[in-house]
Amino acid sequence: MNLTIRSFVLLSLFLSQSLCVKRSIDLIAAHGLISDNRLPRNVVPTFYKLEIQPIPETRTFKGTVWINMTWVTATDEIVLHADEELEINEVDVTQYVADDLTTKFSSVIPPNTKLKIKDVVRLPKKPMVIKLEKKIGEGTQSELYITYNGKMNNETSEGLFMHNYDDPVTGESKWYIASHLRPNLARSMFPCFDEPAFKVPFLVSIARYKNMNSLSNMPLEWSEASETEPKWVWDHFRQTPPMSTFTVGVVVTNFPSITYNSGGERERMPIVRVFARPDFLLSFNNTTLKVARSLKIIQKFWGTKYPLPKLDCLALPNYQAIRPADNWGLILFKESEMAGKKTWHISQELVYQWLGSLATPYWWSDAHVNNALARYLTAYTTQKINDGHETFNNWPMTMLYSIYYEFSKRYPHGKSTAIKQDSASAKTELIFRMLNYTLGEKTFRAGLQKFMSDRQYKTFFSDDIWSTLTTQARNDNVLDTSISVNEIAASWITKDRLPVLNVVRDYENKTAKIEQRVYLRERPHDVPDQDKFLWWIPLVMVREDKLNFGNSTPMMWIKKEKEIVLNDMPVSDMFIIINPEEIGPFPVNYDNKNWNMLAQYLMNDDVRTKVPVNTRAKLLHDAWNLAYAGDLCFGTALNMTLFLKYEREYLAWDPVFTMIDHIGRHIDSSEVHQKFQTYVRLLLTPLYEELGNEPEDGETEGRAHLRSSSKVFLCQAGYKPCIEEAQAAFKKWMQIGNPDEGNPVANQYICPVFKWGTKAEWEFGLQRIINFPESRKANERTYLLKTLAGCPIDSWKIEKLLNITVLQENRHFTDNDIYLIFSMLTGGANGYTTLFNFLDKNWKPLKARFEKKAHLWNSLITSATSVFKTQEGLDMVAQFYLEKQGEFGTADFVVEKALKNIKEESKWSTDNLPVIEKWLDDYLKFNQA
Fold first, then answer.
1. Are 190 and 89 in contact (CB under 8 A)?
2. CA 527 to centroid of chain Cα atoms
3. Which residues lie across from 151 on neighbouring strands?
4. Rounded to whole angstroms, how far apart are CA atoms 849 and 815?
5. Alpha helix (H) residue ranges in 440-535
6. CA atoms within a 13 Å half-sphere pointing along the CA-CB vector of 269
7. Could you tell me the maximum CA-CA distance found in the chain, to the nearest angstrom?
8. Position 12 in a domain
9. 312, 318, 574, 734: which could join 570 in a potential S-S bond, CB 3.0 to 4.6 Å?
10. Mean of pLDDT over the chain
11. Are 265 and 280 in contact (CB under 8 A)?
12. Which residues are CB-neighbours of 648 under 8 A, at least 6 positions away?
């Protein structure tokens, strides 16, 4: 296993990266829960030979690994990863002299000599340290040999795992073995340098029973029967290209496969095989074609063919990981993911074969940019395959809206690392989309192709992507030399915020003043240092007198400037649109006149569709969100909904349902709410009646979603046909012999019945929770309890539930149930007002019961006091606080915080409710005449 000249060249390339300094953009780690410190770079791997022998009877495995290493600097230690669950049996280190290499020694040692090991140190959650008796000099080549035993996982699909499944034909229990090593679980299968930057070739061998088959990253090279164990066969696979430890794949199954025969394309395409249980295999007849189609699109995008000679995709029963295991050349899916009609999961994992396996982030801090670019390319591939007809065709709008909400909070992400990681990746994905628009698709793709060509079989930093795009854009003369993509990207990625542009036109002088600031939707807008937040923003504008939505080249970049002035604007009776098609992830506000011109234009059915549906949705979404934030008159924002009378595109309607929900919740404690519900019924009834109650053959998923959403919100607004339909369905449940055996009512009907239905119907639901049998799924009971508590608008229903669960301490309701009830009551004014009155009325018994259970006590006080929105609510809570001051215990801070928040919300209500009511009065007068 001597080190070849080629391996040494690869090692040199690796070292040139591993010694790089930290790059300019310090990104949020995509794997924030990884607490690893980086291994020292004194000794680095150059090659692995790995033998794995799974033993299914004991759910254990034996392993042997040989690691070729080079001493970068003199040291007497080898530091690498080995999970504490691995039982190390034997460790040897052999020094050897590599061909054509001059080795420095700290002392005279004969070639190919075993080095004396002083100690092997293993501590929990720490790397394994092999201490040598003598310091070894820089440039030394050696081989580390380790034999070990391990346990296969059974409960999770992590590391090397083994799962059982039942054969549906014979009923026989069968098993398979597979590996899922991302992000840092290779150490649980073999001792290794388990960091993404260590990319070196592997030789993998797998032992299996004669009646089974094994798979790894590369094609099978040869097999041999075991000399000592007759029932075992050893499969030896071809050597891999340089790759990271987390991409190593091992599978042992007896699944048959389907092979994609690409005919004349075989030289450009790998052999694609899909493996599944025999009874499921027919369900995947079309999967190989989907894989091949995705491969072709991704290959064309990167300008680089698939790097391995084969690609195996497996549909695994009882596979429990959240996402597929994207081992290089060997991808593991859930059966449902493979059998579905959609291509998202497949395309995403294929993208990772290039971006992650072929080119790999140097460290976890760059992994989130890798993930974001992979998500962007997955969306691109999915849309190419489906011509935009998959449900995913609303990308990026729905994703963008959720990003707006998250980053406009006073405290984005809360304490959730997972939400922070996901929203950071989603935002960066939108930055790639913005660059595709503003640089032009040709330049954007050429830059990424150059990046992939330069970094294949190597690692990269996020700056490498931005730098390559900068160079390409300048070469193509689409980016001024004073602008770099690095600066643009950094201004977006390093902030947990998004900007908003405020555009005020001077119609007489034909100018427009444009100001950027932090977008804050949640009150109060008291984010520290918000005036210091500035972004590089592409200014793309469409004018009514030059209506061209096909040109996304920025007229200029706002270079982290607080304010600019544009000249040569259209005449005063023509609108402008900034950031059409949501090119960049930022909302835009205008003066009232420009907004009203847009509203009038969209109401003209002859010209409305000249504005693309993404832009129509954006205008509607921006208007009501800015109004909700207090930055735009609500009358102006509601005018933007008037064109919906003629609108039938799901994407344009999508933000409307969010608007109905958010505004409805905010005003449901006021008298305006009833008028708002009438507005909702008038708005949605024609749409729903036109769509019909039943789906049509071959209708689009967008139309189906539009029907479903309009029905849900009509039901919430008290639409009689919907309520009658729900009650008819619920009646069937009430009339069956044993209603506790199961729920025959679709979930969509339960909330309308509990909200608008009779006392008998609600009481029936209550009994179903009390008598819920243990044999049924707990999540069915949880859903029933959520709707029973969260849907009613009758205070007596809520009060009765609180009496039974809290005061009477009914044994069928746990503390978790009570916590859930408190939480659900914050969803509507009737709920939290009734809870507040219940708390005030029963203060002493409630305090006695809950004050020693801090989580329940704090939850009760929070739910009862924190959600009021009006001056009346503020007065109620303030008086309550004064009366009970000193008695709140651990929840004292909750009420103080609640009073501050309610003060802000009541100010919003005072400012906006009269405007909303006036607009609704005019609307209802005109539409009900």
1. no
2. 26
3. 60
4. 11
5. 441-455, 462-475, 485-493
6. 22
7. 103
8. no
9. 574
10. 90
11. no
12. 687, 690, 706
pLDDT value for 420: 82
Task: Give the count of beta carbons closer than 10 Å to the beta carbon of residue 154.
Answer: 11
Contacts 24+ apart (CB under 8 A), 828-832: 828/665, 828/668, 828/790, 828/793, 829/668, 829/669, 829/673, 829/869, 830/668, 830/792, 830/793, 830/794, 830/795, 830/798, 831/789, 831/790, 831/792, 831/798, 832/863, 832/864, 832/867, 832/868
22: in domain: no
Q: Nearest-CA neighbor of 585 among 789, 798, 372, 277? A: 372
* Angle at CA of residue 181, ends 177 and 187, nearest 5°: 105
The residue among 631, 650, 669 that closes a domain is: 650
Give the integer Cα–Cα distance in Å for 750 and 758.
12
Overall domain count for the chain: 7
Helix, strand or coil, per DSSP, at residue 478: coil
Query: In the prediction, which pLDDT does 23 show?
Result: 33
pLDDT at 345: 83
DSSP for 267-327?
TTS-EEEEE--TTTGGGGTTHHHHHHHHHHHHHHHHTS--SSSEEEEEEETT---SS-EEE
Which residues touch 837 (CB under 8 Å, ≥6 apart)? none
pLDDT number for residue 929: 54
900 is written with which tokens?
């501050």
For residues 97 and 95, give the distance between their C-alpha atoms in angstroms, rounded to a whole number: 7
Task: Among 331, 364, 397, give the residue marking a domain's end.
Answer: 364
CB 768 within 8 A of CB 776: no
Cis peptide upstream of residue 56 (ω within 30 degrees of 0)? no
Regarding whether 662 and 524 lie in a shared domain, the answer is: no
Q: Give me the DSSP letters along 641-690.
A: TGGGGT---HHHHHHHHHHHHHHHHHHTTSTHHHHHHHHHHHHHHHHHHH
In DSSP terms, 252 is beta-bridged to: 177, 214
Both tokens of 532, joined, read 């210091």
Q: Tell me: the pLDDT tens digits for 551-588?
A: 999 999 999 999 999 999 999 999 999 999 999 999 99
Specify whether 826 is located in the same domain as 923: yes
- Shared domain check, 147 and 3: yes
- Residue ranges of the chain whose pLDDT lies below 50: 1-33, 100-109, 263-264, 390-392
Same domain, 328 and 288: yes
- Distance from C-alpha of 431 to C-alpha of 467, rounded to nearest angstrom: 15
One DSSP character per residue, 776-816 reads S-HHHHHHHHHHHHHS---HHHHHHHHIIIIIS--TT--HH
Question: Residue 393 half-sphere exposure, CB side, CA atoms within 13 Å?
Answer: 18
The parent domain of residue 679 ranges over 651-718
Residues 60 and 167 reside in one and the same domain:
yes
Buried b / exposed e across 372-385, counting CB within 10 Å, b at 16+?
bbbbbbbbbbbbbb
Q: Say if residue 272 is exposed, middle or buried (CB neighbours under 10 Å; 0-12, 13-18, 19+).
A: buried
How far apart are the two ends of the chain, measured CA to CA in Å? 89
Tokens (6 digits) for 575:
């609108």
Please give the C-alpha separations between residue 761 and each of 307, 729, 795, 834, in angstroms, as whole numbers. 62, 12, 15, 20
The candidate with the shortest Cα–Cα distance to 48, out of 245, 196, 206, is: 245
Distance set, CA 558 to CA 434, 554, 586 (Å): 14, 10, 13
Q: Which of 304, 307, 180 lies closest to 243, judged by CA?
A: 307
Nearest-10 crossing angle of helices 854-865, 843-850? 140
What pLDDT, on a 0 to 100 scale, did the predictor assign at position 265?
52
For residues 273 and 313, the answer to whether their CB atoms sit within 8 Å is yes
Domain assignment present for 786: no
Between CA 265 and CA 263 the distance in angstroms is 5
CA-nearest of 44, 122, 34, 132 to 83 is 122
**Per-residue pLDDT tens digits for 95-138:** 987 553 333 333 344 567 899 999 999 999 899 999 999 999 99
Measured CA to CA, the distance from residue 882 to residue 893 in angstroms comes to 14
Nearest residue to 129 via CA among 8, 196, 39, 264:
39
Q: What is the CATH number of the domain that holds 882?
A: 1.25.50.20
